[in-house]
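re: ur msg from earlier - yeah i can do the S-adenosylmethionine complex, just paste it... oh wait u already did. ok heres what im feeding in:
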Amino acid sequence: MVETTQKIEIPAQFDKYPRMRFMGNKYKLIPWLNSIFQKIEFQSVIDPFSGSGTVSYLFKTLGKSVKSSDFLNFPNVISKGLVENNYSIVSQELIDRILNTKSIHNGFAFNTYKDIFFSHEDLKFIDTFWTIINSSEDDYEVSLAKTALIRSCAKKQPRGVFTVASSDKYDDGRRDLMLTLKEHFNEQCEVVNNAIFHSEEVCTSQKSDVFNHEDLESDLVYLDPPYIPKENDNCYMKRYHFLEGVSCNWRGQEIMETSKVRKIKKPYTAFSYKRTAVQTFDNLFQKFRNSKIALSYSSNSIPSLNILVDLLSKYKSNVEVFQVDYTYSFGNHENAKINEAKEFLILGQ
Ligand SMILES: C[S@@+](CC[C@H](N)C(=O)[O-])C[C@H]1O[C@@H](n2cnc3c(N)ncnc32)[C@H](O)[C@@H]1O
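and the outut:
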């Protein structure tokens, strides 16, 4: 077991990464992860659970060629905008058009979510955004503008999760809750534009379940799957269905009519099931056995560290475990007992 203490400088560009509230995101652990990544020889890396895109963005700042993916659409939109994209920004012209177009009535977001999430004006703004956005012919500009919209919705929603309908209960007068979505969007365009930089290495982003990933050519694979908790659930769709919907204007999504918050039906992921957890991790390691494997995991999840080390040792001759104390500050862990945990990085080479 290795406790990494030596701090290694992170490229200054990483400061421009727009942090996002997202369950299991590795933003706070980036200095620790970076110090471990520096010990590994690699140039290409797959990040198949990209989530908020933090780790993919770090890899890009380190000059690596990164392939980001996630089984949800909105993480893919974010990585396309912030990681795959080298040059495009959301132009002032597009921002002005989105902000100044007369808002439309009776659009999908308004009709579906009125009196559930956000104000009527905010929902009309989302619908208006969707009438304008495809007028841009630059796919990266479109992804980046959608990223600004996704981030606006996440910021404006109390605790950043969409499990219960909006209520005054969480309204503590914070600025993020006071701004309209339009005002957020205007600010977020500047934030995401500021994060764009060019890399000589090709970076890509796609929407894909990890087990359908066909492109396996890479030196390293960084695995950050949903942690399977001993209790509770780890469903990303339950918490972020609105962000998933807004990232594609709910096109092709099945909304559960019986759900009070109009959730999107959750897609299957093998990482939801305790009973088959060991087999799932075995399948994951086997799939990426030709690359170096770095797995993020937490002490309060299953399978246990020992089981994971044994499984990875089936495919890799040298397995090391790095660990750090970690306190979750994210509001989804209501149970205080599970807030204190150890975060592991299990590295197989
Ligand atoms: C722990 S989070 C990743 C966090 C990310 N590294 C970050 O820093 O933001 C796990 C991610 O796995 C995704 N996911 C869940 N099941 C998946 C599957 N079967 N294939 C690909 N992605 C999956 C979720 O959508 C979520 O974004």
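cool cool. The chain has two domains: 1-70+217-230+279-349, 87-196+236-273. ping me if u need the other ligands too
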